[in-house]
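Dear U.,

For the methods section draft, I wanted the exact inputs and outputs in one place so we can describe them consistently. I've listed the two proteins in the order they'll appear in the manuscript figures. Please don't edit the token lines directly; just add comments below if something needs changing.

First protein:
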Amino acid sequence: MVKKLKAMAEKKSAAGAGLFDSALANSVRESAKEIWLAGMGAFAKAQAEGKQVFEALVKEGNSLQKKTQGAAEERFSEVTSKMTSMADEVTAKAGQHWDKLETIFEQRTAKALKKLGVPTAKDVQALVDRVDALSAQVAGRAKASAKTAAPKKRAPAKTAAKRAPRKSAA
């Protein structure tokens, strides 16, 4: 008897499963059909309104691009001015440091040259001035001695000039 009950229960469950399977299959078919029809309707609507939607999207894209480009140009000008001011500051600081470095180099070079006994530009200029003064003194003395000795020497110079043509003629 137990065997008969088990067999009947199995038949009822198999029959119930078949009913359930056919109901589930019908439900799935109906859902798939509705999804297919919805997709077809969306496609038809997209074809009909696609051109208008595309044009609207292009207009929105243009306006967004103009806004973005304006903001970018504004930011670019701000960044450019900041970079220019920073570059000016860096240039000024570098110039100050360069001047300090140049001064230190000149001082150390002058110190080394002094230790070696090399005369400075001031020393050379002082010597040039002294030579010029001595040259002026020598020139002044030469003029003074030439004035006093000039009349005595002029007579023999004329005789020497007269003799020179005679020698060349002879």
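Second protein (the one for the lower panel):
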Amino acid sequence: MKVAIAASGETLDSQASPVFGRCSHIIVVNIVDGDFKDVKAIPNPSTTEGGGAGIKTARIVGNENAQALISGSVGPNAFEVLKQLEIKTYQMVQGTVKENLTLMSQGKLDELHPTPPRGRGLGIGGRGGRR
């Protein structure tokens, strides 16, 4: 299975990134029987560009033909792009890229669900507020 992971560096020993669109690198790995093959670190140009970082980063993942993504969070627009590309997203745990990939290969990471757009929640002033 080809897996992409948001990372804070370019090696398997780098920390997994809690952010997706502005992570410093995307590391793509082919997991075969628990082994990591064809490791590729891609610098993320979206760290220095303007808006739409999540969408641009999602397209990088799609261009690598990844089947899954591991990240701390994914914004709603990027999540929609990943969904259209049929890329499943998984919640990272604090630790290295290698630790997260190992957990992924063991089926121990939870699927990540989209976060609602800001200002549309059910908090104060939202639809769930006082009437």
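Candidate sentences for the figure legend, describing the second protein: Helices lie at 53-63, 76-84, 97-105. Residues 120-131 have pLDDT under 50 and may be disordered.

Thanks,
Y.
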